[in-house]
Amino acid sequence: MRAVRLRPLTRRSLAAGIGVILMSATLTGVASAGSTATSSANSPSEAVTVPAPVSSDVAQEVTRTGKSRSAAIQAYWTEKRMREAIPVSAAPSTVTPQSPSADAPATLHKVEPVAPSSPQSLDHRKAGPSTKDIGVQVNASITVGKIFYRNAVDGLNYVCSGASVNSSSRRLVSTAGHCVHGGGGRNWHQNWAFVPYFNFGNRPYGTFPATSLATFNGWSGSGNFDYDVAFAVVANNEFNQRLVDTVGGQGLQTGQPRARFMTMLGYPSENPYPGDWQYFCQGNTAAAGANQITMGCPLTRGQSGGPWLWAYNDSTGLGYINGTSSTLNRIVNPTQWWSPYFDNPDWDLFNYANGLP
Hints:
Blueprint: E1 4-5, E2 47-51, H1 56-65, H2 69-76, H3 79-84, E3 86-87, E4 109-111, E5 128-129, E6 144-150, E7 157-165, E8 172-175, E9 190-196, E10 208-216, H4 217-220, E11 230-234, H5 243-247, E12 251-254, E13 261-266, E14 279-284, E15 286-287, E16 292-296, E17 307-313, E18 318-324, E19 327-329, E20 336-340, H6 344-354
Parallel strand pairs: 3-7, 5-14, 12-18
Antiparallel strand pairs: 1-2, 2-10, 4-12, 6-7, 6-9, 7-8, 8-11, 9-10, 10-11, 13-14, 13-17, 15-16, 16-20, 17-18, 19-20
Helix pairs in contact: 1-2
Keywords: Signal
Organism: Nonomuraea longicatena
Protein name: Peptidase
């Protein structure tokens, strides 16, 4: 399937000699998708998107039965397929820790979190602690969920993590770029679906199939982990409910300090974590190169795409996404996770995704 290249974006660290028109959105609330920017034609900060692909058997099911595309994706994800899906293997980050870029600070942008439309939807069960956080208690969030997709190359089913994020469309999921695309000129993933608050095989809020996937050219074209960020637009679940109406949405911040106290949530799926419930890590982040942040956390693969949340509220399950679990290095002690540093292009990517069908 051919990607549709959107108006190009520009990351600060690569913007020398390139004129940039930043968004004029306010710092609070939900911004529009109508801003402009300029960059070179093959900038890694260029947004790339596709209508979410499906596998041939799902396409045939739509033709044969007359099911909607969303219903066919939901039917594809049987309990057996979900149970047998595996975490994606990503190379360890090659970032060398160093001082942040000396460029001018990124513009501060913020979207406020929002609770679900129905207050009785809130659930205050505890998330599982990481091995370093045993003894600490943090509530799981109904906005955080497990992502399922089929790899178009090897035909295997995989898992990632993600979180619903507030936007005017009320349909966005925040995740990592490698959870929507293989990176480095490979393929977009197929049969993509988000299951918020997946718990021990149960789907209490339903399954939300993707309609569009969006990431950076820097990820899809060259597999650069500085650009390992993505958003998915999802259709209604099988109960005809919109995502954010049903579970609420996390807030989003860009251009914030690199050193912050964060809560990571997601579905690690390798020993000693089973992948059937949310686990958390908490700690202080640090700058890692000009465009990444890092945190010591022993959560395993499957955590990829899970949100890094600032000001996480244990009562509401809401905070502000400031990063996403991208890649890890288990050779060091403690295990290190990295996230792209969220700055101007990530804000633009969020707004572009918000305008997709």
